[in-house]
Write a structure and sequence with these properties.
Elements: H1 6-20, H2 27-55, H3 63-70, H4 75-81, H5 86-93, E1 101-102, H6 110-117, E2 125-130, H7 138-144, E3 151-157, E4 174-177, E5 181-182, E6 197-199, E7 203-204, E8 217-221, H8 237-240, E9 246-252, E10 271-276, H9 284-290, E11 297-303, H10 311-314, E12 319-324, E13 330-336, E14 342-348, H11 352-360, E15 371-375, H12 383-387, E16 394-399, E17 435-440, H13 453-464, E18 473-476, E19 493-496
Parallel strand pairs: 1-2, 2-3, 3-4, 4-6, 5-7, 6-8, 8-9, 9-10, 10-11, 11-14, 12-15, 15-16, 16-17, 17-18, 18-19
Antiparallel strand pairs: 12-13, 13-14
The structure holds zinc ion.
Zinc ion (ZN) binds at residues 401, 415, 442, 445, 449.
Length: 516
């Protein structure tokens, strides 16, 4: 700080005070005078400082350049940026392109929403709004409604149900609600627009609704968490959504399953995902009834007391995958058909012996399997099924540490491979099989973690005990530097150190559209 001679300023103030306040005798008048002096003094200094700022490097950055930098800021930091200085404030407040994505990231007040909306000009709006703990959302709705024609994407994370969204929204493409929704015929103005993505919790649908007739992707929950609430009425789904391509139904239970649609799904449907939370209810009959012959991917998730007939899923399979960690967790059976078509069923707590029995029951439908991908812990229980695959060319064994699919915390030794299940490779009749891949992945070990030299030695010790007439074995997942001292003498084995390793997933389900 430069030297500052306070006495000179003091003398100047006394001089000015005597000149300006000489005739004031009334206390009220003196108060007003002092307020005026302070305001003028502070304003004058601020204006002078602003002039200095304008000369600085930061002050010379054009508003458009500032605005393009601010475009990288999350919504909540935009407001902070507007408080920094006059030029930043001008750049932030005068650029509609900074405001069209309104996602405060936490509780949104009507005032903040109003402020942001007022700055958006005519931009299409992407909004992600949430309210805290049951706070009323009607005020937010009232602020939003006048801008409805500009809304392109709306995510509404509010606990309480709101009004039925009957405002006109001709350019809305995506609507997501986290509360129970009553859809009326007048939804989004009662006419078809551009709506494609509809992600709902429980919902009541009318008999007809033009605005949802254009939807291609629908997520809906059948049964509410709260027993007092009504379950969704999905009986008219196929008529309401004639162009549906992706459908996910969650929260099916035995008591509400009669509210699911009946009959064949629209021919446009390509991907289906259904989850049942009753332990004893089988979703397979629903999928078979809905199957339109065009389904590229099907995923059913259900519980252990069901014994689904896998015949239709299995028929024509060229790649079979069985993912299993323990009998208390999920067992996932994946059937891949030609052209990448997949059928997957995930059964919680069924136990690998029961899962193997389900496969054995449809063994004749598996005669076209060329590739089998199995968790190594499932090798022995599946030995009978695998040995009876007449055209199995490639056996892919997926190996994770023993805890990788369970909770790994607290766990003293999450990185702990168990190789003994590989002993059952000796009992598989692999006459037509030309290669075996051992895919070793550290699963949920703390990143970064890879199988190491000790793991390699233990694995090879296990493999040395196998008969020598097995097909060639390729091992993936070991970094080259861990293999420098590994001895492969006499083994028909090679390490592939460049192969990518990861979870055993045949088909990754489609993710929800999200512009944020
Ligand atoms: Zn590890």
């Amino acid at each position: 700080m430069p030297d500052f001679d306070e006495s000179r300023l003091r003398a100047q103030v006394i001089h000015d005070y005597e000149a300006l306040a000489r005739n004031i005798s009334d206390a009220e008048e003196m108060n007003r005078f002092i307020d005026a002096v302070m305001t003028t003094a502070a304003g004058t200094v601020r204006a002078l400082l602003n002039a200095v700022n304008q000369q600085s490097f930061m002050g010379c950055i054009p508003l458009e350049v500032l605005a393009s930098c601010f475009a990288y800021l999350p919504f909540r930091y935009l407001i902070d940026a507007s408080h920094v200085c006059q030029s930043w404030r001008a750049a932030v407040l005068s650029t509609p392109a900074l405001w069209y994505k309104i996602a405060p990231g936490s509780h949104c007040t009507p005032e903040v929403l109003q402020m942001a909306l007022a700055r958006t000009g005519a931009m299409p709006l992407d909004l992600q709004l949430m309210t805290r703990d049951h706070s009323p959302s009607e005020d937010l709705y009232s602020v939003l409604a006048p801008y409805s024609r500009q809304i392109r994407h709306l995510v509404w994370y509010c606990d309480r149900p709101t009004s039925p969204w009957e405002f006109p929204a001709p350019i809305m493409e995506a609507f997501c609600s986290s509360s129970t929704q009553i859809i009326t015929a007048g939804f989004l103005g009662g006419c078809a627009g551009r709506l494609r993505y509809l992600y709902l919790q429980c919902a009541q649908f009318p008999a007809e609704c033009p605005a949802i007739s254009t939807v291609t992707d629908l997520n809906v929950v059948l049964t509410p968490f709260d027993e007092d609430d009504r379950p969704s009425n999905l009986g008219g789904l196929w008529d309401l959504f004639p162009g549906l391509e992706w459908l996910q139904i969650l929260g099916v239970i035995r008591q509400t399953a009669h509210l699911l649609p009946a009959g064949t799904a629209p021919s446009s449907l390509r991907e289906l995902s259904v989850e049942c939370v009753s332990t004893d209810y089988d979703l397979m009959p629903h999928y078979l009834a809905w199957d339109n012959g065009n389904l590229g991917h099907v995923m059913l998730r259900q519980y252990s007391e069901t014994r689904p007939n896998l015949e239709r899923m299995a028929r024509g399979t060229v790649r079979l995958a069985v993912k299993h960690a323990s009998d208390s967790s999920k067992t996932r059976l994946m059937f891949e058909h030609p052209a990448g078509v997949t059928r997957t069923i995930s059964i919680s707590g069924i136990g690998i012996a029961n899962a193997a029995a389900l496969l054995a029951a449809v063994q004749s439908n598996l005669s076209t399997v060329r590739t089998a991908m199995v968790s190594h812990t499932a090798l022995e229980p599946l030995a009978g099924v695998l040995a009876a695959l007449p055209d199995l060319e490639h056996l892919f064994v997926h190996i994770v540490p023993k805890t990788a699919d369970g909770p790994t915390y607290p766990n003293q030794d999450p990185h702990s491979f168990v190789w003994t299940p590989l002993a059952s490779l000796a009992h598989l009749a692999l006459a037509r099989t030309t290669r075996i891949t051992l895919h070793v992945w550290c699963g949920d070990c703390h990143w970064p973690c890879r199988a190491n030299a000790d793991d390699a030695r233990a694995l090879l010790a296990q493999l040395r005990a196998l008969p020598r007439d097995l097909p060639p074995i390729e091992i993936q997942g070991f970094p080259a530097e861990e293999l420098a001292a590994v001895d492969l003498t006499g083994l028909n084995i090679r390490f592939d150190v460049v192969a990518k390793v990861g979870a055993l997933i045949l088909h990754k389900g489609k993710e929800a559209y999200d512009p944020f």
